[in-house]
Amino acid sequence: MDKKLTTAFGAPVPDNQNVKTAGKRGPMLLENAWFIEKLAHFDREVIPERRMHAKGSGAFGRFTVTHDISEFTKAKLFESVGKETEVFVRFSTVAGERGAADAERDIRGFAIKFYTEQGNWDLVGNNTPVFFLKDPLKFPDLNHAVKRDPYTNMRSANNNWDFWTLSPEALHQITMTMGDRGIPKTYRHMDGFGSHTYSFISKDDKRYWVKFHFKTQQGIQNLSDKEAAEIIANDRESHQADLLNSIDKGDFPKWTLYVQLMEETAAGDCPFNPFDLTKVWPHKDYPLIQVGELELNRNPDNYFAEVEQAAFAPTTIVPGIGFSPDKMLQGRLFSYGDSQRYRLGVNHSHIPVNAPKCPFHSYHRDGQMRTDGNAGRTIGYEPNTQSQWQEQPDFSEPPLQIDGDADAYSHKDDDHYSQAGDLFRLMGSDEQQRLFANTAASVGGADRHIQIRHIQNCMKADVAYGEGLAKVLGISADEL
Ligand code: HEM
């Protein structure tokens, strides 16, 4: 192998230890071209981190179909049992910055890029089936509330819980986050969810609403607050190390994919809004249907190239898979590409980890960091009579019936509590006690009136939830 150091433009570097100076003790010369190149590149090494989900770990692998669901979707990746599709997965924590500790109480990102023969499909999910919000207009506020305070530059329990408790739709997600699953032991020991309702389009153009669930084959394992604190004291990269080391030693993590399905027209009869991201679809009414297996078996060779520069976007879908009227999903359809054009540039789809593995032909041209041949002499417009790439109407989706008046509908009076209460009642009494203790440790740092507001929200889910928490926080019934 050639071990000779060169400049970025290929010329030999004769001295990489000493700059050229005017005289032995004199100042540097401007003609230190190699020094200037080296420092100027170094000065630009940092790119913006993801606004949320900044700390993450990634790995490559494959998805294999084990059960036939081709009746419900024409997506080629699901066309036959045994079919394999290459994937890249990035896991993340949400609120912390790029250098944050892994073992924090937080939801985890679970983003999957399927490199299908019909283009990439990004399923950008979390380790929880629901989310804090149901309206995307509130998303920047959620993040400003959980991230650093503008004055103190510290995370603030007051800001966090002030916003959460004034957004009672968050209670279901808060109950999960403060419960046992709030700190997964590692990325391998947690489930993944598409969370939103998406759609499947069948070969005969029938639409089904669908939810995606990835169940870990490693088993769910979590950390208590105490165990997490001990880990963080010695190791901020516990999830990264676990994923990297297991794959390096050939212990490949696996998840089983299931879907829940609903007929298109059944959405109208559903007792809850099936497009509400704060709700789950009960498994007894919408049973899990097994689909396939996700395995991670190859570590990226270079973290920056393949993990930091990875760009997942809910807009990146393939024929046979579509969106839904979920407002949160609709909001995300704008945000990811927009963020990535800022974070990575307009041509980020060309970065190898993001590029499709099938042929791709668009008329996008030019822009910063266009490093391929820019489609050479190919004309740059459509329609054309030069036999260049034509639109493909065969892949259009069936129309979706919509009704009602355009308005900014308030969700203030929705039922925010039943499913949070169901989750609370599903927990054994030990787990309920841990939920109270974890919540008290977190909300305990906020003002008393905020603690009381949270207890009042919990009461509406289940009186025992509110009372148990009030007891641990030392708040009497008279104060509520
Ligand atoms: C990352 C916006 C809700 C999962 C991001 C990023 C943005 C964003 C701008 C950074 C993207 C990048 O720079 O590459 C939003 C908005 C939301 C929303 C506006 C709601 C309106 C959600 C929900 C989920 C989710 C509900 C899960 C179900 C993720 C994940 C990442 C991410 C996993 C990291 C992807 C990666 O590993 O690169 N989000 N998000 N987000 N978001 Fe969201």
Automatic annotation (TrEMBL):
It comes from the Bacteria. Pfam families: Catalase (PF00199), Catalase-rel (PF06628). InterPro entries: Catalase, Catalase_3, Catalase_AS, Catalase_clade1/3, Catalase_core, Catalase_haem_BS, Catalase_immune_responsive, Catalase_sf. One of its GO terms (molecular function) is metal ion binding. Residues 371-396 are annotated as: Disordered. It is an enzyme of class 1 (oxidoreductase). GO terms for cellular component: cytoplasm. Residues 6-390 form the Catalase core domain. It catalyses: 2 H2O2 = O2 + 2 H2O. One of its GO terms (biological process) is hydrogen peroxide catabolic process. The active site is at residues 53, 126. The keyword Iron applies. CDD domains: catalase_clade_3. Residues 383-393 have a biased composition (Polar residues). Heme binds at residue 336. Its cofactor is heme. Its EC number is 1.11.1.6. Keywords: Heme, Hydrogen peroxide, Iron, Metal-binding, Oxidoreductase, Peroxidase. Belongs to the catalase family. PANTHER family: CATALASE. This is Catalase.
